[in-house]
Design a protein that fits this description.
Blueprint lengths: L8 H11 L3 E6 H14 L5 E6 L2 H6 L4 E4 L2 H4 L8 H10 L1 H7 L5 E7 L4 H15 L3 E8 L6 H17 L2 E6 H7 L5 H24 L8 H8 L3 E10 L9 H10 L13 E8 L5 H14 L5 E8 L8 E8 L8 H12 L3 H4 E2 L4 E2 L3
Parallel strand pairs: 1-2, 1-4, 2-3, 4-5, 5-6, 6-7, 8-9
Antiparallel strand pairs: 7-10, 8-10, 11-12
Helix pairs in contact: 2-7, 2-10, 5-7, 7-8, 8-14, 12-13
Main location: cytoplasm
Keywords: Cell cycle, Cell division, Cytoplasm, GTP-binding, Nucleotide-binding, Septation
Subunit structure: Homodimer. Polymerizes to form a dynamic ring structure in a strictly GTP-dependent manner. Interacts directly with several other division proteins.
């Protein structure tokens, strides 16, 4: 017998194709554009990559399907000079173009490294336009390394305070916490690790809904967890072998994710969670469910949890990876009150900290 087909299959397939959610990943500024480049290398199924920048020479090199030079009149394509007010003006100038590019979106990721000019200044405008168009809007941002200086951190915190009020969910990745994972990395390599974490966060969430699995998460599930959720954190862990009878590879992978410095919050405050389990051909439904049960025991008993599991034939048979997105968390460090306090501290530096003795020798800020 040949393969069974129905006369209605073609119409159903056309409907499936037309009803797929339109997902855009927008990288803005230098760091955000670098993340888009990294996503191009990684490959992300089911999303369109977009880059926006005020720096024309940098933008032309980015491997994005769509590009937008922000603020042609404001910056002349020469960048924002680390001034986030210039980045903000550039985004406002290009607001109609941003709106046009995102017009049919169902979900928009906006990503940047907070602290600089273009990314910090433009990301709030981009997120606001996406949200006003009705798209689920997820911001994934990094906070600067301490070595980048106090001014950059002050700018980043001011940008974060605005963004949190605009995006549905804001996922924070603090670069200093990346350094605690690999403390001896040269700074240029540390920035690449930061780009990698941003890229994998966006890719992981997108492919939760674009790649079919044993247990599927659909767009409606994703929306329930990430809509109007405030701050979120994301982490992943991996295991490739059975360690002992008490700790199987599923729980080892989860433990690696939960112990990550990137997940340094009180999980008991979480209101929602997304769990995605991906493994080689030996992955079992029982293993995936054990991860769900374990996460359930860690967070608020009333928390909404959605989970999915799929087999990736390209992974080694014994490998297993778990990604956890915890949203609605109480991030005391980045509450409105604490951000305002920190910004004030950074704005009112004592001159004695800026100059040393009679030599008036500037120190690095």
């Amino acid at each position: 017998m040949g393969e069974f087909t129905s006369v209605d299959d073609e119409d159903i397939l056309k409907f499936i194709e037309s009803s797929k959610p339109k997902i855009y990943i927008v990288g803005t500024g230098g760091s955000g554009s670098n993340t888009i480049d990294r996503l191009y290398d990684l490959g992300v199924e089911g999303a369109t990559l977009m880059a926006m920048n005020t720096d024309a020479p940098h933008l032309i090199k980015v491997r994005a399907e769509r590009k937008l030079l922000l603020g042609k009149k404001v910056t002349k394509g020469l960048g924002a000079g680390s001034d986030f007010t210039v980045g903000e003006e550039a985004a406002k100038e290009s607001k109609e173009e941003i709106k046009h590019m995102l017009a049919d979106a169902n979900m928009v990721f906006v990503t940047c490294g907070l602290g600089g000019g273009t990314g910090t200044g433009s990301i709030d405008t981009i997120a606001r336009e996406a949200k006003e168009l009705g798209a689920l809007t997820i911001a994934i941002v990094t906070l600067p390394f301490s070595s980048e200086g106090k001014t950059r951190m002050k700018n980043a915190l001011e940008g974060l305070a605005k963004l949190k009020k605009t995006a549905d969910t804001t996922i924070i990745i603090h670069n200093d916490k990346l350094l605690s994972i690999a403390p001896d990395l040269p700074l240029n390599m540390a920035f690449k690790v930061s780009d990698e974490v941003l890229a994998n966060a966006a890719k992981g969430i997108v492919e939760m809904i674009t790649k079919p699995g044993m247990v599927n998460i659909d767009f409606a599930d994703l929306k329930m967890v990430l809509k109007s959720s405030g701050y979120a954190v994301i982490s992943s862990g991996e295991s490739s072998q059975q360690t002992d009878r008490k700790k199987n590879r599923a729980l080892v992978a989860l433990e690696n994710a939960v112990k990550s410095p990137l997940l340094d919050v009180d999980l008991g405050t979480a209101k929602k969670a997304l769990i995605n389990v991906v493994g080689g051909e030996s992955l079992t439904l029982r293993e995936a469910e054990s991860i769900f049960q374990e996460v359930s025991s860690m967070i608020n008993t009333d928390a909404l949890i959605k989970w999915g599991a799929r087999i990736d034939k390209d992974m080694a048979k014994e490998s297993l990876k778990v990604m956890v997105v915890i949203s609605g968390v109480e991030f005391t460090e980045y509450s409105d009150e604490n951000i305002e306090k920190k910004v004030d501290e950074l704005s009112n530096l004592d001159l004695d900290e800026v100059f040393e003795g009679d030599k008036k020798k500037p120190i690095n800020l």
